[in-house]
Write a structure and sequence with these properties.
The chain is mainly alpha-helical. The protein has three helices and no strands. It is rod-shaped and about 165 Å long.
């Protein structure tokens, strides 16, 4: 009888222990399920947030690139206009020279006439005034040419900076587009590997370069 009672008590103890373990495992399973659900929810939230950030950055970069391209076209147009003004002013500066030489020749001939005393008559005053006007015209045109060349140099330097910035924006757009396509699963596994290899190779080359050489281009010429 004692043996039977002991066996029953021992069995009941195992049953109670098994029930406790089952309750604990149930609680643990519920906790794991809740944690997994939270992790998946957070992961899904992060995915959407990252995708939105990529799309927003791509959109912002695209808008900035379009503004830079618009500025570049305006600068190119203005540079051409300044070049035309320089050529026209230089031509005007050269056109004045023959008239200036003619005026000085007439003055020299008048001053060197034989058997005639040098007199300040109306003709002499007119020639002197004409020579002075030619001199001031050439000086003014030369000053304008200097200012136009300085303006051309400033515009050329500004265009150079805009083209560098535009080149950076276009490279960023290319990388962001590849990243967005990769995240959206539009690439095949082979293509994904090619993209990853391309990004790694490009990043290695860029960051191994001297920072001043990463976006180096030929400097614009300068008018003097």
């Amino acid at each position: 009888m004692k043996t039977m009672r002991g066996w029953l008590e021992h069995s009941l103890e195992y049953i109670r222990l098994a029930a406790k373990l089952l309750d604990r495992s149930t609680v643990l399973r519920n906790n794991i399920t809740a944690l997994f659900s939270k992790v998946m929810h957070d992961f899904d939230t992060k995915i959407h947030a990252t995708d939105f950030a990529y799309r927003k950055r791509y959109h912002d970069t695209l808008q900035a690139a379009r503004r830079l391209e618009h500025n570049r076209q305006n600068l190119v147009t203005e540079l051409k206009a300044v070049e035309n003004d320089i050529h026209a002013t230089e031509k005007g500066h050269e056109d004045v020279l023959p008239w200036k030489k003619l005026c000085h020749t007439r003055l020299e001939n008048r001053n060197q006439r034989p058997n005639n005393e040098l007199s300040m008559d109306i003709a002499q005053e007119g020639l002197l005034l004409e020579a002075s006007n030619h001199r001031h015209s050439r000086e003014g045109l030369f000053q304008k040419i200097t200012e136009l060349r300085s303006r051309w140099n400033d515009l050329s330097e500004q265009l150079h900076r805009v083209e560098l910035d535009l080149d950076r924006k276009q490279k960023c757009l290319e990388m962001d587009k590849r990243a967005v396509d990769l995240r959206q699963g539009t690439f095949l596994p082979e293509a994904e590997k090619d993209v990853i290899d391309w990004v790694v190779d490009r990043g290695t080359k860029v960051f191994s370069m001297d920072p001043d050489q990463r976006y180096k281009k030929h400097l614009p010429k300068v008018l003097v």
